[in-house]
Amino acid sequence: MPPPRGRGGIEGIEEKTQPEIQPAGAAPAPRGRFGALLVVLIASYVMSALSRGRVIDALQIVLFAGAALLALRNSDAPRRVVRLALVALLGGTVIMVVLSASLTAGDEGTGIANLWTGLILLFAVGVIVRRVLSLGTVTIQSIYGAISAYLIIGLMFAAFYAAIDHLTGHAFFEPGRGDNTQTFQYFSFTTLTTLGYGDFVAVQNGGRAIAVLEALTGQIFLATLVARLVAAYRAPGGGN
Questions:
Q1: In a domain, 22, yes or no
Q2: How many structural domains are present in the chain?
Q3: Looking at the domain assignment, is residue 131 inside a domain?
Q4: Quick check: 19 pLDDT over 50?
Q5: Where residue 65 sits, what CATH number does that domain have?
Q6: What is the 3-state secondary structure (H, E, C) of the chain?
Q7: pTM of the model
Q8: Does residue 74 form part of some domain?
Q9: What digits encode the pLDDT tens for the residues 65-98?
């Protein structure tokens, strides 16, 4: 007597042995590679440190957008979310590049471009940290991701400082002490690392409050995420 053709027979066995098919809307498994992102961030910082001008500022916005795209590429977000974020990121970046490079934009246009840059970098930090924490094992790419996130935090606060300077009508530093990209990034990283040289100081209460927040963020980030990853990292073939 032939076996029944229900779910308990041959057809049922075939159904159980069939491989699972990934939904069409799901994103492929991310590779979690952050080396290229780290290179882009270092190149962006070196470029802005050695050069000045609206064209350089506009080019830096493009590089930061590229960094956000690389971070998004390593995420495990659904394809629909990735596409929406991509459209918003590219569209907004084009507008901000025009504002940053325009000679007629004025302080408001420059401040809006700085604010957009800070929001791009904030988005990138969130994506990177989420992805790094979701990885099952700690690899050298995890370390690259954590270092990239740390650099992005410093660049992000620098962009917010510049936005405050241009949008509030009050100088962030003492008048005449410098209000360019290089100065804001220098102040941001000395604050993030709590070096506190004291050659540049925020004069407004709002700027001081954000500087304290950055110092706390830098210390917490190093003492928790980076230290945890470095302690758990094992080189390939290194054993326990």
A1: no
A2: 1
A3: yes
A4: no
A5: 1.10.287.70
A6: CCCCCCCCCHHHHHHHHCCCCCCCCCCCCCCCCCHHHHHHHHHHHHHHHHCCCHHHHHHHHHHHHHHHHHHHHCCCCCHHHHHHHHHHHHHHHHHHHHHHHCCCCHHHHHHHHHHHHHHHHHHHHHHHHHHHHHCCCCCHHHHHHHHHHHHHHHHHHHHHHHHHHHHCCCCCCCCCCCCCHHHHHHHHHHHHCCCCCCCCCCCCHHHHHHHHHHHHHHHHHHHHHHHHHHHHCCCCCCCC
A7: 0.77
A8: yes
A9: 888 887 877 777 777 777 887 788 788 878 777 7
